[in-house]
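User: Hey, my collaborator sent me this sequence without any context and asked if I could get a structure. I don't really work with proteins. Can you help?
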Amino acid sequence: MTETIQYTVALILLILFSAYFSATETAFSSLSRTRLKTLAEKGSRRAALALSLSDNYDRLISTILIGNNVVNIAAASIGTVLFVGLYGDIGATVSTVVLTVLVLIFGEVTPKSIAKDNPERFSMFSAPFIRVLIWIFKPLNYLFGLWKKMISRLLRIEKGGRMSQEELLMLVDEVQQGGSIDKEEGSLLKNAISFSERRAEDILTHRVDLEAVDIDSSKEEVAKVFTESKFSRLPVYEESIDNIVGIVNQKDFYSGTGITSKSLREIMTAPLFVLKTERIDELFRLLKENKSHIAVVLDEYGGTFGIVTMEDILEELVGEIYDEHDEVTEEIRQLSEGVYLVDCLINLDDFLRFFGLSSDSESISLGGWVMECLGKVPEVGDSFTYQKVTAEVAETDGQRVAFLKVTKQEEEPEEEPGEQE
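Assistant: No problem. I've predicted the 3D structure and written it out in structure-token form, which is a compact way to encode the shape of the chain:
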């Protein structure tokens, strides 16, 4: 009877240890390092210890798994001895059933559920004992480390690098769907992730849309462009738009209550030139270093391809920025059921995403893609069908498409079995 009590007590203790190891594993895999760091900075020694242990996660998880396996094997052995002594030949079977249920409920599921809900608190609770076990199992951890390296070399397993952009975007989607962040926060994170992948050619104002002034323009002509465009800075060209020689600031053009008496050459600043393939994070750095708000983007022939402003770059992060002079227009406006009017200055990727289309085109704007699809200079009334939409040129601006009328094609309902004659 005394032995039975001893075995029972030992079994209970081992199951408690199994619960401890299971909960600790879940706690350290689920904790927020930011929260622990905050608690540590406030003076919590246990938070600092837990944070330190989590820095070497491989050693930590190895210690937990060793401890968990040791207590589970010991529990199985003691349980077999206990139940064989009580029930004879069927004792081994009874031990297997009972211990399986006990370990699953009290050694795995329950402690892991509790630790999952309070990972930081439980990691701080378990940290001192785990630190002792890490020291005790240090020889075993060293051997397992060597074994891991050998297996990795034999199987040629490469360490996982940084998460790819696609993986990060999927992670943001999952977090957003889980309700941890809202739609606007998710959009900001996605913009930040894809920020470095964007190029100057993806966000520029094309040369045909530039507001610029000739170096020989009269003061009245320059003042008129400033007034009509509402821009605070204008590129200055000599002879042709392909030869931009400076940038004139509205503040420098007007002095006191009137127009400055100085010439454009005297007040304009030197332009910053970049290639159209320049990444916008690098372009942002160049603009800050040169204390400039506008960069002139060159094509492969050295001609003017367009301009990129500081505002254009910031809009890639935070979305459209409007001031009191901007006319807010919808890029895609619904006219009726399945019919839309689209501004052809919209980014092609945004257009394709909105209508659920795909394309291998290298065009950046919708207007350029439409000209590719038509294969000619567009005219009002020209139309074409692409995948599941029909597009019609609604308005042109010179040789460019200004607005496109897009109609979604109705999907034909699938025929029910037995309806065909």
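In plain terms: Residues 211 and 225 are 8 Å apart (CA to CA). You can pass these tokens on to your collaborator as they are.
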